[in-house]
Task: inverse folding
């Protein structure tokens, strides 16, 4: 029988997890673009030490079986992918040497012709 | 001497075999040249239009639009399992028959007066047919367009009698590529699309050389993939595949490997810039991946005129441009993977890879509109091309040959 991994203690990051646990990549992108570096760093620094344990914890469930609270935690964990470059490479909320990311419209299929 | 030296040898980074002269810039901005491109290229060459899996069953359809030509194309799978392409134009008075990007239907009914066509393009019903004089439905089928498939992709050609069949056109990418890329396990995962104030070829140029990597991607992946030493190869005898570039991991990776990236790598690798752990082998597709080389990441092939096809272990990536005017185009990128995401680790890995390549692409796309304005303004008349950038020279040579109505470069 496999070991059950307990939910990591996230009690000191509840407000940040609430703020960043947005449903889609695009929502989290806009959140990052509209946040100050202070807000981004606060979220990152609170989450970073917990992230390996959060991934291991969430990884034991079927994605479709995540509870509401764990779904929220999973979205906050995914938001770490969104802020990673801002914190560790750019030191700014947005990349100054790229086009506005919002110009890249997400496609829904290979033949989707939607554009902004 | 055998051993690591042989195993780690990386192909040459390009050559001057196609010349060293500067390349004129007016083909990026001239309206006159653009009009000729429409005639000699977009009405004469094979254009990648769809993925075959989107038209897998009888009744499935997709639409494809070539903006510069204002041409809307329907691709259907008939009841006889045949793929067909038609102009999206009712033979009554020219209205579109289908407006969605894809779907499923038994018949194509014009929304204007209700003419009905079957999936084979035959006109099968006309309301109040007696109103027409000397009327014969058999003489009014949809106008058909040349179509063929390769690698699981559907190509169309507006030339009713294409000079070359598709498989000849795409040599040297032979049967192994057809089998590998066409395997039914590949499925579309995600993509983006955007409109740019730049010539359609500029965004292709940006993807077929490595020289830009160290500067353009200084805030993302510079140091983690090769720049000046990315191998480049040209195929002067090919009709539709002018060149290829490749990426091999540097023996020593520079740049920032973040904790998030390292965590992601534990659960797979879906970024173009890391070696994928995903296994995928298509029967008779052996040799497509350079798997025996420990540092190999991807090969990227230019499919003339408007596609760059990246092949790496576990991932296919396509970048395409569609011209609108000399100064405007659509750009899109599409990713194909195998298997469903099952657990959060895979989801995290997919998200991290997707965001990384998105940010890298924003850098790739950053320079084109400024370059275009400089060309429009006549700020410079020609561009300089080094030997690592030889795919751009091969692309230009192929373009000019096509404009003269010649198939191959020679």
Result:
């Amino acid at each position: 029988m496999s070991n059950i991994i307990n939910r990591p203690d996230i009690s000191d990051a509840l407000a940040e997890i609430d703020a960043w646990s947005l449903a889609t990549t695009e929502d989290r992108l806009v959140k990052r673009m509209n946040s100050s570096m202070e807000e981004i760093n606060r979220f990152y620094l609170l989450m970073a030490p917990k992230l390996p344990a959060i991934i291991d914890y969430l990884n034991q469930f079927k994605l479709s079986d995540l509870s509401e609270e764990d779904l929220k935690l999973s979205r906050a964990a995914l938001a770490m992918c969104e802020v990673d470059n801002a914190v560790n490479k750019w030191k700014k909320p947005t990349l100054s040497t790229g086009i506005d990311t919002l110009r890249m419209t997400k496609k829904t299929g290979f033949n989707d012709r939607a554009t902004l | 001497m055998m051993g690591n030296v042989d195993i780690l040898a990386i192909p040459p980074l390009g050559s001057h075999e196609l010349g060293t002269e500067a390349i004129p810039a007016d083909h990026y901005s001239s309206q006159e040249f653009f009009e000729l491109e429409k005639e000699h290229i977009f009405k004469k060459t094979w254009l990648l239009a769809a993925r075959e899996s989107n038209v897998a069953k009888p009744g499935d359809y997709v639409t494809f639009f070539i903006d510069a030509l204002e041409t809307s194309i329907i691709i259907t799978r008939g009841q006889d399992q045949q793929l067909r392409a038609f102009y999206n134009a009712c033979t009554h008075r020219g209205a579109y028959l289908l407006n969605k990007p894809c779907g499923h239907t038994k018949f194509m009914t014009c929304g204007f007066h209700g003419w009905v066509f079957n999936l084979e393009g035959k006109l099968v019903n006309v309301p109040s047919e007696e109103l027409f004089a000397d009327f014969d439905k058999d003489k009014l089928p949809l106008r058909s367009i040349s179509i063929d498939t390769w690698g699981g992709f559907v190509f169309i050609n507006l030339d009713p009698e294409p000079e070359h069949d598709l498989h000849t056109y795409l040599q040297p990418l032979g049967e192994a590529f057809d089998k590998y890329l066409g395997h039914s396990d590949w499925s579309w995962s995600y993509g983006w699309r955007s409109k740019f104030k730049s010539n359609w070829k500029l965004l292709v140029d940006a993807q077929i050389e490595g020289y830009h990597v160290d500067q353009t991607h200084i805030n993302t992946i510079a140091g983690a993939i090769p720049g000046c030493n990315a191998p480049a190869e040209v195929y002067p005898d090919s009709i539709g595949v002018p060149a290829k570039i490749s990426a091999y991991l540097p023996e020593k990776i520079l740049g920032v490997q973040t904790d998030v990236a390292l965590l992601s790598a534990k659960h797979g690798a879906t970024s173009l810039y890391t070696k994928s752990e995903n296994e995928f082998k298509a029967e008779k597709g052996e040799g497509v991946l350079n798997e025996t080389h420990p540092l190999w990441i991807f090969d990227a092939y230019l499919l003339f005129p408007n596609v760059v096809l990246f092949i790496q272990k576990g991932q296919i990536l396509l970048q395409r441009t569609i011209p609108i005017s000399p100064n405007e185009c659509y750009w899109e990128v599409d990713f194909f993977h195998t298997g469903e995401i099952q657990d959060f680790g895979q989801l995290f890995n997919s998200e991290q890879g997707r965001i990384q390549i998105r940010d890298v692409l924003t850098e790739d796309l950053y320079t084109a509109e400024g370059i275009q304005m400089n060309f429009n303004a006549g700020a410079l008349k020609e561009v300089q091309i080094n030997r690592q950038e030889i795919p751009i020279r091969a692309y230009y040579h192929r373009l000019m040959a096509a404009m003269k109505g010649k198939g191959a470069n020679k």
